[in-house]
Write a structure and sequence with these properties.
With 493 residues, the chain is of the alpha+beta class. It has two domains: 235 residues, Nucleotidyltransferase, domain 5; 224 residues, Nucleotidyltransferase, domain 5, CATH 3.30.420.40. The protein has 20 helices and 24 strands. The strands form seven sheets. Strands 15, 16, 17, 18, 19, 22, 23 and 24 form an eight-stranded mixed sheet that branches. It has a six-stranded mixed sheet with strand order 3-2-1-5-14-13. Helix 2 packs across helix 4, helix 10 crosses helix 17 and helix 14 packs across helix 16. The longest helix has 17 residues. It is globular, with a radius of gyration of 22 Å.
Length: 493
Amino acid sequence: MSLLGIDVGSSVCKAAAFSEVGECLALHMREYDLVCPGPGQAELPIRAVWDKVKEIVSSVAASTGGDPISAICVSSMGEAVVPVTRRREILADSIMSVDVRGMTHAQALESGIGIEAAYLINGNIVGPNFSLPKLMWIRDNKAELYDHADYFLSVSECIAFLLGAGPVYSESQACRTLLYDVYGGDWSDALFDWSGLDRSKFAPVVPGGTCIGQLATTPASELGLTAGIPIVAGGHDQCPTALGCGCVHSGMAACGLGTFQCISPIFEMPDDPLAMLRSGLNIENHVLSGLYIAFIYNQAGSLVKWFRNTFATDHRDLADIYDRLNLEIPPSPTNLLVLPHFDPPQWPTYVADSSGAILGLKTKTTRGEILKGIMECASLYLLPGVDALRELGQPLKSLVAVGGGAKSDAWVQINADIFGLPVIRPRNSEAGLVGAAMLAGMATGVFQSAVEAADRMVKTERVFEPNVSNHEFYVDKSRRLAAVYPAIRGILS
């Protein structure tokens, strides 16, 4: 019997079936584009995404006849919510985290309840990217839609709901709304009272890895699967990704190198949560009971894609374009300083009115140096967060690199050198899918524990050790990079 993991991102959905020893039996994906109904607005076309999900699951199912799927688990990006009815109807597209709507509501929360008080409830740093301000905007600007919706579900829970599961919120996805009490383990009365949102429109919260229903007859027939297959709660995609990296103990961290570069450290609840806040670090439920996770991130992969589309138009074959570009990357660190604000940064704080910058260019600067400078500074931007964890008594022992960027030896080595830590690259870089499959197996008795699941499903391909002299160079470069934004912020827009 095989385990099916589904992951829905902002631009691509993926599904894969895995054997009980981590062999990928089939993997399919589909791309899609966000809808931009107005300036600064971005929506996920959820009906089209649902059609894409059905396509990839059908393709996976057709490839696993000899090892039929025994359980399903879905993960997705956080913050975005989908209005649905009890009859499992989708009412509208999903407003994304980068959408500017809800900005004034986020500011009202910051000045009303306050950043510290909100953090001592939810564990996240108040910002317009979360669900709460966008839901208030929907209520105030699209009252008919708000009233008609029986539930607002995260994208992962919406897909599970359409498959036949009950309406629920996984703990990690509930955290991304800003309405969840991460310390109390349920929706927050205080935040619902302040916002005026209708609590009945928010489904019960369950831990990741909980069985939440069975595959219904209609979607089963559409997908070529057997009705009654257990559906298991997944979570905010970075949490199953961390699990799929084998991060089952505190001190371990995933390093996702995709559209976003996201370092996701695992830890136990700190004695002083506000010390985490002062370092710009959030606290969110991991998909494993008793463990928590934070996110240190930026849009690194988007910058690399921008570089490809802007400076590598001479290569038409996208299959090998990154291999070609990696050959141009110089072995030594660069002196370029790249401010990675090409899109509004969301960590450690949301900055809506900034722009990117590349400093230190000369006529002899090569294309490979610019690419390496982008990779370096995108990672250097995250170094203060990793340093803060050590100062808070939560030091990282290693990183596990996954995602499309993890295929680049150069980029993985850059991260080892910058953070001064060994970086492990697993054989299967699709850790989000692996983690979802692990949750499906843990919920249905295939694995007796997360440790057993990791031992059986996660295999190491290579370990990248840090270069000490390069690390010392990057520590100094980090200080210089930190001075860039304060020096030029007045002229950026």
